[in-house]
Amino acid sequence: xxxxxxxxKDDYFFAFDTAGVRIADYENKDQEGINQIDATxxxxxxxxxxxxxxxxxxxxxxxxxxxxxxx
Length: 71
Known about the structure:
By secondary structure, this protein is α+β, with helices and mostly antiparallel strands. The chain is built from one helix and four strands; from the N terminus they run E-E-E-E-H. A hairpin with a 5-residue loop joins strand 3 and strand 4 (about 20-25). The longest helix has 11 residues, at about 45-55.
């Protein structure tokens, strides 16, 4: 089972709970259950925290841009 999508099939789904614990990651099962609230991207942005804050403050959806290496 894979969660890849996109034209090149190099994007994938993942999910965090509101505390920053990764609850789903089909490509990196070893990351599930780990709190990543303070994880930073290549520019030093706390992207997990920003994703959660954006989701909580925008009931109709939102967007967070971040840069990491795809697994």
